[in-house]
């Protein structure tokens, strides 16, 4: 018997997809450890408790709702304290978070407070006796490492989309919890700048249209935006060459030093396919490349390639996709 | 108004060149290092550069670099000194993957250093973990701002920007603090010949790392499955109908 504590990440008052994935992963881990309960910690400003049922129907036996005005912005210090206190008093086998911007920040804080081993960006795990082994792609996704973690508890942050959220027939209970104050909290959020609205986040998007220097000019990203619109709910990414030149914000950069993504479809437009770019997108399900140079390395990883001028091909492709999706 | 002089520690790691092709060693639990080039970890390089620039702006302060690892990390420490860091501390240990253990060793050493800022990369290329900086901050009991893409220091306070998923957050924090550095803050300079000569004479202290109990080990390494060879459907707009057909029927994304 071993219980698992899950951090249920929220954003703007909603439970994120990664939170449901983490709860489902927590369920698998509890079951693999001989059965036990999954407790999801849902922290946010007053009213966040209304979202508890979503977690309770994805494998959480209990949702611990912690409402505090502090949690209106990302209060990392009190969140870390709240998670760590709960983990200590609850005697958990593991704490599971998502390897998202928040989870990356929180995981090591919690692990250090618990003096617990931590594995980041986990894609698989298994329980073997007193040890937990995990798979974690290291070396910018070029080497898959198997790590063995000993001791209790352990902290695992899971890779977004690596675990599928599964609804469970049994709904868990909802409890109220209290926030642990951050003694001497010293980080203040002075402003949150929301990015472009209306597009999914790169980490969650099923389809990503990405542009490179082959687009020739900042204005031509309009073509990429149009293609993304034609696909419906697609996100827009970029190479470092493009973010360096200020054509797109740094937040859109995909690759070793940018975001790491694995959507169902990745369309690389005017992108050469440098190793550092591939590091961020090579695990995408289907890759399409459009480049005028048939020797471009991107074609080595692309399932489907078209050789030609993107300025000519993209508008025509946009029209064809619109046509094919008519009725959607 | 001048800029304040800040005393900065930067923790740096030695990692293989990210452009390398990797092979797995015979043990099955390590990479084969033959023929690989090693250098300062990319994000740690950004951190060193950011520290040097803060010091240059103020015309004062100090940048001290730290590394935990075997003797070969001294090369990396010298490189940081050739960029401009004043001195280096090498905490000797066999290579470790347990980020909490590395943080323990660094915190034990940094505790009495009197630093205003301790800087790290947001994550290392090899571990791709992002643990050591944040855990060190927790052990030191100081604020930690992770993945800063802009950083400034004024009036005993730090200001940073962090890229979130689809948004950005501006934070202010008190010093002393730990900051882990994202790309965007600064691109590392190349050491000058003069810098390289000077680095040879700069102080490098070496002592055992106090790792404590190591609870994370590598038990296996493997290369990811190769992607099946792709196909070029054709040239120009003539290939579009076939692409759309495949996206509909084979990839099933339309
Ligand atoms: C430490 C480090 C970290 C890095 N991290 C990243 C990272 O995270 N992400 C990243 O993307 N890069 C990263 N890079 C940079 C990377 O090495 C490449 O420089 C970059 O990815 C190239 O971007 P690009 O493909 O847009 O440009 P280019 O390499 O210039 O490629 C442009 C492509 O467009 C094609 N083209 C030109 N005109 C047309 C046209 N009219 N129609 C069709 N095709 C056309 C060309 O054939 C070419 O293949 C990093 C580099 C280093 C050293
Ligand atoms: N052995 C080490 N010695 C010194 N600094 C390190 C070491 N390992 C990691 N770091 C620092 O911590 C950052 C994050 O590493 P990691 O937590 O392994 O992703 C790196 O970019 C370095 O700045």
Give the tags.
A: 328 residues; alpha/beta; B: 254 residues; 9-stranded mixed beta sheet; two-stranded antiparallel sheet; 31% strand; binds flavin-adenine dinucleotide; binds adenosine monophosphate
SS class of chain B: alpha/beta
User: What percent strand of chain A?
Assistant: 25-35%
Q: Work out the oligomeric state of the chains in this entry.
A: heterodimer
Silhouette of chain B: globular
Give the integer mean of the pLDDT values of chain B: 95
Q: How would a crystallographer describe the biggest sheet of chain B?
A: 9 strands, mixed
Work out the helix count of chain A.
Answer: 9
C-alpha end-to-end distance of chain B: 59 Å
How many β-strand stretches of chain A?
A: 18
Residues in helices of chain A, as a percent range: 25-40%
Helix content of chain B: 25-40%
Order of helices and strands of chain A: EEEHEHEHEHEEEEEEEEHEHEHEHEH
How does the overall form of chain A come out from the CA principal axes? elongated
Computed over alpha carbons, the radius of gyration of chain A is: 21 Å
Main beta sheet strand tally, sense and closure of chain A: 7 strands, parallel
Query: What is the average per-residue confidence, as pLDDT of chain A, rounded to a whole number?
Result: 95
């Amino acid at each position: 018997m071993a219980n698992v504590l899950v951090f249920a990440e929220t954003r703007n008052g909603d439970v994120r997809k990664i939170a449901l994935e983490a709860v489902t992963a927590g369920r698998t881990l509890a079951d693999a450890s001989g059965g036990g309960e999954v407790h999801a910690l849902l922290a946010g400003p007053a009213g966040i408790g209304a979202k508890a049922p979503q977690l309770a129907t994805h494998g959480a036996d209990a949702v611990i709702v912690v409402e505090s005005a502090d949690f209106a912005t990302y209060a990392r210090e009190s969140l870390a304290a709240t998670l760590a206190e709960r983990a200590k008093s609850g005697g958990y086998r593991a704490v599971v978070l998502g390897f998202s911007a928040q989870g990356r920040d929180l995981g090591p804080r919690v692990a250090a407070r618990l003096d617990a081993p931590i594995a980041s960006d986990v894609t698989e795990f298994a329980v073997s006796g007193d040890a937990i082994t995990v798979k974690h792609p290291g070396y910018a996704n070029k080497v898959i490492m198997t790590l063995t973690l000993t001791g209790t508890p352990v902290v695992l942050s899971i890779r977004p989309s690596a675990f599928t959220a599964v609804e469970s027939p049994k709904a868990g209970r909802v409890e109220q919890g209290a926030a642990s104050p951050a003694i001497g909290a010293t980080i203040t959020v002075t402003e949150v700048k929301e990015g472009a609205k209306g597009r999914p986040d790169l980490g969650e998007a099923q389809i990503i249209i990405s542009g490179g220097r082959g687009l020739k000019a900042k204005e031509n990203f309009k073509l990429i935006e149009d293609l993304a619109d034609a696909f419906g709910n697609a996100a827009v990414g970029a190479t470092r060459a493009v973010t360096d030149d200020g054509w797109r914000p740094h937040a859109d950069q995909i690759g070793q030093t940018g975001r790491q993504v694995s959507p169902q479809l990745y369309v690389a437009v005017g992108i050469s396919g440098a190793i550092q770019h591939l590091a961020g997108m090579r695990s995408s399900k289907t890759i399409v490349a459009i480049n005028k140079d048939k020797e471009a390395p991107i074609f080595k990883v692309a399932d489907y390639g078209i050789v030609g001028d993107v300025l000519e091909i993209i508008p025509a492709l946009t029209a064809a996709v619109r046509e094919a999706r008519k009725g959607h | 108004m001048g800029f304040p002089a800040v005393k900065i520690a930067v923790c740096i790691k030695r990692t293989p060149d990210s452009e390398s092709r990797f092979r797995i060693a015979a043990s099955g639990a390590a990479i084969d290092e033959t023929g690989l080039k090693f250098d300062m970890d990319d994000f740690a390089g950004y951190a060193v550069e950011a520290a040097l620039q803060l010091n240059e702006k103020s015309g004062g302060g100090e940048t001290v670099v730290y590394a935990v690892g075997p003797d070969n990390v001294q090369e990396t420490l010298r490189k940081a000194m050739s960029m401009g860091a004043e001195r280096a501390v090498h905490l000797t240990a066999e290579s470790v993957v347990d980020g909490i253990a590395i943080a323990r060793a660094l915190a034990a050493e940094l505790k009495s250093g009197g630093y205003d800022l301790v800087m790290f990369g947001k994550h290392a290329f090899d571990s791709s973990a992002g643990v050591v900086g944040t855990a060190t901050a927790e052990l030191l009991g100081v604020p930690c701002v992770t993945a800063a893409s802009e950083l400034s220091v004024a009036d005993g306070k730090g200001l940073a920007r962090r890229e979130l998923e689809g948004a950005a957050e501006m934070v202010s924090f008190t010093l002393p603090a730990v900051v882990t550095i994202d790309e965007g803050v600064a691109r590392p300079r190349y050491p000058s010949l003069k810098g390289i000569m000077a680095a040879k004479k700069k102080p490098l202290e070496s002592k055992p790392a106090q790792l404590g109990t190591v609870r994370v080990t590598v038990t296996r390494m493997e290369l990811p499955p190769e992607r099946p060879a792709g196909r070029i459907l054709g040239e120009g707009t003539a290939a579009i109908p076939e692409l759309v057909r495949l996206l509909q029927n084979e990839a099933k994304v339309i």
